[in-house]
Amino acid sequence: MRLPFDITDPVLAWAAWSRIAEPGDDRAGVVVRDLGPSTALDWLSGNAGRAGSLPPATRTMVERWAPRLDGLDIRRELEVLHRLGGHLLVPDAPGWPSAFADLGTAAPMALWVRSRERVTLDFPAGGSISIVGSRASTRYGETTAAEFALTLAEDGVAVVSGGAYGIDAAAHRGALAARGGAPTLALLAGGVDRLYPAGNEGLLHTIAQTGALVAESPPGSVPGRHRFLARNRLIAALTGGTLVVEAGARSGAISTANHAAALLRPVGAVPGPVTSAASAGCHWLIREGRAVCVTSAAEARELVSPVGDYLAPEPLVAPGLLDDLAPDQSRVLDAMPVRTSAEVESIARAAGLAPAEVRGALGLLELAGRVRRSGNRWGRVAS
Amino acid sequence: MRLPFDITDPVLAWAAWSRIAEPGDDRAGVVVRDLGPSTALDWLSGNAGRAGSLPPATRTMVERWAPRLDGLDIRRELEVLHRLGGHLLVPDAPGWPSAFADLGTAAPMALWVRSRERVTLDFPAGGSISIVGSRASTRYGETTAAEFALTLAEDGVAVVSGGAYGIDAAAHRGALAARGGAPTLALLAGGVDRLYPAGNEGLLHTIAQTGALVAESPPGSVPGRHRFLARNRLIAALTGGTLVVEAGARSGAISTANHAAALLRPVGAVPGPVTSAASAGCHWLIREGRAVCVTSAAEARELVSPVGDYLAPEPLVAPGLLDDLAPDQSRVLDAMPVRTSAEVESIARAAGLAPAEVRGALGLLELAGRVRRSGNRWGRVAS
Fold it and tell me: What DSSP element (H or E) covers B366?
């Protein structure tokens, strides 16, 4: 079978393979990467009519892929893409995300990118995060996703998500609300010409203006359920780490988190009320040690940053009145009257310490500015 | 100096030491456990008047403890206790909690127990839990503490807390609301004759009826701040593990959790909204790996049970439509029309698989009851 386009052009050949093979078909990944996309396409089209005469293993592959050669002219899909202002990325060409190397033969054959700006998909270390979660989200989860995304985007961290209802949409919206900062990217399960789901059409359109819509299948592809699962591996692989904001029992966000963990990307999860079914998946991830507990945008940034590059400020666990004192000092301070003053012997008796011990502790407390002497008597310094 | 009671009676001697030494005074713990309480008391009272002539180390100890011998007649405190219907426990006597062995020389000298019922303090493995948290609690935290405590008590797990406002009170109330089940115990920082804080007087009174109020200091002791910190070590040591329900920045619950961890007791923390300051301490404990994330009474019970004795049911992370299927099967099922049926070739084309692969997958899906054949066509079985 002869194809109507120049299969020796590797860009066209990669693009064609992204239509012939289903996302994540790693047998195709092996063949295409072994032979190169043009040679593999030449081999496939040459054998398309005579699968029956091939040895069984080869025959299965030809029977799997050949039906999609019928009527294939990938220049049409590219034209659709270009009309939408998009561009194609193919493996190892400039702009191809180096992070996808970790996917091996399951890496996409091409990326169909719809964006008005030239947005990088090859993020520097610490420069990207995937924020995912349930479609069945709560107000709490949406607010949290949006606030974290806004702060992260303003800190220059690109927010990647799946363009779905609920947490995905909230994360995109938060990132879009940032002043300046990093763009937001939506990885779609269908073609970038289909703004799916319909209720997010406006949002996805806005993302295409300042960020990017990205798909591994060409325009015209239907976002089937299997493609959503395959798409999740891309969300997990593309960024420095994945944050699950809310995830119920059946949430695809858990599958994204599992992909990220398998790719040795850090996984975080945002806790919520134990009474909220929308947080059950997050709590499960944390409890099982599959995710770090993340409670702020700063902690999310720490999650995706190279170790030591960025540390979230510790929460203000301020020391209590006695927390930072040695035991004798705390007993002495505790034994002192609140408003008046007292002599060493009386403090010693109240503290259950010897007068010499009390004098030593008072000296150190005086140096720390916690007590003050006047004559024979000692009093607290109001804190 | 001669004391007005029989110091050769070990019960009186231990009781006296619980008044002479401040809680957690481990120098006293060493001396009293080395010499025995009666000999130690004899030594102290014999040297009380002549501390100046002793070598420095001994002198410090005598000066520390001797002032509290003035007017000491521990029979008076015991009389107060008995009038309240209480009883005294001394180290290693029947009923003494074996768990306190882990405290070594920091173990209490005595336990002043106020309870109408004979309530055990020597819990079997998995039979007790400490539930602690902020006084500045939220409705969410209080409800959670009460519900967990109720379920745990009905499951025979004794709930121990500190009798304070907020989470402590909610835990006690929840346990009291259980039908039958295990009693609840409040470990107090002051004497068991003082129902402190005043706003919990009614609650503490009820606990004394069906559970127990317990203190290491005798009746009349003032609940000073240092004694609260010392009391926290007892809460941590007495039970199989400690659960922090809500803890803000300065919460003493963090100190209880630290004590529990130092004693190798499991520590759990209940997550909450990241927007709630009352949950910040819990999230910090979880994030730092100091506490397990606990979201239900069953998980709390698992926390304090010996490994393998009791496992909380996994949350219902129900498989999605495709989750439990092999990749080929999920692609085939996904490629099938939702309401009508299709032939193998058409399914193969949609799935991006060879017809032979589709036939194999359909066979397995049929066995699993997910698809049905009629003639040449295959359709989904509604799930």
Answer: helix B355-367
**pLDDT value at residue B323:** 60
Cross-chain residue pair A331–B22, CB shorter than 8 Å: yes
Residue with tokens 């030593």: A360
Q: Is B378 on the interface with A (CB under 8 A)?
A: no
More confident residue, B178 or B51: B178
Sign of the four-CA dihedral B194, B195, B197, B198? negative
Say what the ipTM of the complex is. Answer: 0.87
- Closest residue in chain B to residue A268, using alpha carbons only: B287
Interchain proximity B284–A322, CB inside 8 Å: no
Domain parsing of chain B, residue ranges: 10-72, 110-304, 327-380
* CA–CA dist A55, A60 (Å, integer): 9
Cβ distance B225 to A22 less than 8 Å, yes or no, reads: no
Q: What is the pLDDT of residues A283-331, one digit of tens each?
A: 999 999 999 999 999 999 999 999 888 999 876 554 454 566 788 888 8
Cβ separation B353–A64 shorter than 8 A: yes
pLDDT tens sequence across B308-348: 889 988 765 544 545 667 888 888 988 888 888 999 999 99
The yes/no answer on whether domain B327-380 falls in CATH 1.10.10.10 is yes
Pairwise CA distance, residues A362 & A345, whole Å: 12
Q: pTM to 2 decimals?
A: 0.89
Is residue B87 within a helix (H) or strand (E), and if so which, with residue range? strand B86-89
Res B318: pLDDT = 45
Q: Which tokens belong to A169?
A: 């949409």
Q: Strand pairing of B292-293 and B341-343?
A: unpaired
Q: What is the DSSP letter of B54?
A: S
Token readout for B319 is 């498989």
Residues B155 and B327: their CA atoms lie apart, in Å, by 43
H/E stretch holding B215: strand B212-215
**Within an 8 Å CB–CB cutoff, is residue A252 touching chain B?**
yes
pLDDT digits (tens, 9 = 90+) for B234-291: 999 999 999 999 998 778 899 999 999 999 999 999 999 999 999 999 999 999 999 9
Residue A146: name the closest of A245, A19, A222 by CA: A245
Measured between CB atoms, which of B143, B281, B320 is closest to A250? B320
**Inter-chain touch A59–B299, beta carbons under 8 Å:** no
Query: Topology of domain B110-304, per CATH?
Result: Rossmann fold (3.40.50)
Q: How far apart are the C-alpha atoms of B327 and B343, rounded to whole Å?
A: 20
Inter-chain touch B327–A24, beta carbons under 8 Å: yes
Helix (H, G, I), strand (E, B) or coil at B79: helix
Task: Identify which of B302, B291, B378 has the alpha carbon closest to the alpha carbon of residue B343.
Answer: B378
Q: Which residue has the tokens 């009666």?
A: B38
| Angle between helices B252-262 and B225-238 in degrees, nearest 10 | 40
CA B160/CA B242 separation, integer angstroms: 9
Query: Residues 212-231, chain B: which have Cβ within 8 Å of A?
Result: 224-227, 229
Torsion, Cα A96 A100 A101 A105, to 10 degrees, reads: -110
The three state secondary structure string of chain A is CCCCCCCCCHHHHHHHHHHHCCCCCHHHHHHHHHHCHHHHHHHHHHHHHHHHHCCHHHHHHHHHHHHHHCCCCHHHHHHHHHHCCCEEECCCCCCCCHHHHHHHHHCCCCEEEECCCCCCCCCCCCCEEEEECCCCCCHHHHHHHHHHHHHHHHCCCEEEECCCCCHHHHHHHHHHHCCCCCCEEEECCCCCCCCCCHHHHHHHHHHHHHCEEEECCCCCCCCCHHHHHHHHHHHHHHCCCEEECCCCCCCHHHHHHHHHHHCCCCEEECCCCCCCHHHHHHHHHHHCCCCEECCCHHHHHHHHCCCCCCCCCCCCCCCCCCCCCCHHHHHHHHHCCCCCEEEHHHHHHHHCCCHHHHHHHHHHHHHCCCEEEECCEEEECCC
